[in-house]
Design brief:
There is one protein chain. By secondary structure, this protein is α+β, with helices and mostly antiparallel strands. The chain has eight helices and 14 strands. It folds into two domains: 217 residues, no CATH class; 102 residues, no CATH class. A hairpin with a 4-residue loop joins β5 and β6. α1 crosses α2 and α3 runs antiparallel to α5.
Length: 321
């Protein structure tokens, strides 16, 4: 029996000042960028996407792949359990921990599964995706300029974990008081704000209109010393996927605490029956699990409309054996 941790997130990508939805440039920007050999180097690690392909699932078309961290691990000391002593060492080992991801095109929701504890985190996926898309767009536009072709548009990408209200409530019950709730809003990618409570609807609509009016890509809303922990958890959960939340609080011993969206993003456990420790050998089980997750199966009317309009062109990217 092997256990893997699955995170639920939102791949929130829009284009240009018009904030056009992700699928409109999927075939000439997103897909080829994720299939490219572009590498992001950070500190002593090389991050890149591998085995990327478009697949057909019961939840519609999905972009599947793995994020690899190709790195070297330095061993400078070892512990001998028999002598209970440390000894010096000078060893270097190659390592390539990875995470598996699925981006469902109907609603741009994501499943992100770490293969092991040291596998790349969701935040690393976010930074790597931004880098790869930026580099691909830059390289492609240089070619298009020479050929006097239409350029690929600028983009705004934010990969955000979708928080669990129950997990958030558990964390808030541990604190003495909340000092501040800060919400950072991003462009909407076909989201249906009317599926939220009336208060959250007004907040999202107001922020969307204010951002557009001012020409800003992002916006912030802060609430000082909110007293109702339950409604704070509900609000953060409802804006999940369209806004990053940071909660500043005081613990019962007086120390400061920060709770961020990705720290309380909804996580599920996948338990497999065999002993294989490679998540790539359990892809069918991951997809089966996805069919029971409301955040993955729920699709807004707007997103459904966009998907149906572009579905045939997207299907051309499917590989046929």
């Amino acid at each position: 029996m092997t256990k893997f941790e699955m995170s639920i997130a939102n791949f929130n990508l829009t284009y240009g000042k018009e904030e056009r939805p992700m699928l409109e440039q999927f075939t000439d920007l997103v897909y080829p960028a994720f299939c490219s050999d572009i590498i992001r180097t950070y500190e002593n690690s090389n991050y890149f996407f591998m085995n990327t392909e478009l697949i057909d699932t019961v939840n519609g078309l999905a972009l599947k792949g793995i994020l690899v961290n190709n790195t070297e691990v330095d061993i400078n000391s070892k512990y001998n359990s028999k002598t209970r002593k440390l000894s010096s060492a000078n060893e270097v080992y190659s390592s390539a921990p990875y995470s598996l991801f699925y981006i469902f095109l109907k609603n741009h929701r994501m499943i992100y599964v770490k293969n092991q504890k040291v596998s790349p985190l969701l935040g690393t996926f976010n930074q790597t995706a931004k880098y790869v898309l930026h580099q691909f767009r830059k390289n492609e536009n240089e070619k298009r300029k020479k050929m006097r072709q239409e350029l690929l548009p600028d983009f705004n990408l934010n990969v955000m974990g979708i928080p669990s209200s129950n997990d958030l409530m558990t964390e808030l019950n541990k604190v003495e008081k909340i000092s501040k709730l800060n919400l950072r809003f991003y462009p909407l990618n076909g989201e249906d704000i009317y599926e939220t409570s009336e208060v959250t609807q007004r907040l999202l609509q107001s922020m969307y209109e204010s951002r557009k009016f001012s020409g800003s890509k992002t916006g912030n809303a802060s609430f000082n010393s909110p007293k109702d922990k339950e409604n704070v958890a509900k609000m953060v959960s409802e804006v999940g996927g369209t806004a990053d939340a940071t909660i500043e609080a005081k613990s019962r011993d007086g120390s400061s605490i920060k709770i961020k969206t990705n720290n309380v993003s909804q996580k599920l456990r996948l338990v497999t029956e065999d002993e294989s420790n490679q998540i790539t050998e359990h892809e069918s089980e991951v997809l089966k699990k996805a069919t029971s997750i409301p955040e993955i199966t729920r699709v807004s009317d707007r997103n459904s409309e966009i998907y149906k309009k572009l579905k045939n062109s997207l299907k051309a990217l499917l590989k046929h054996d």
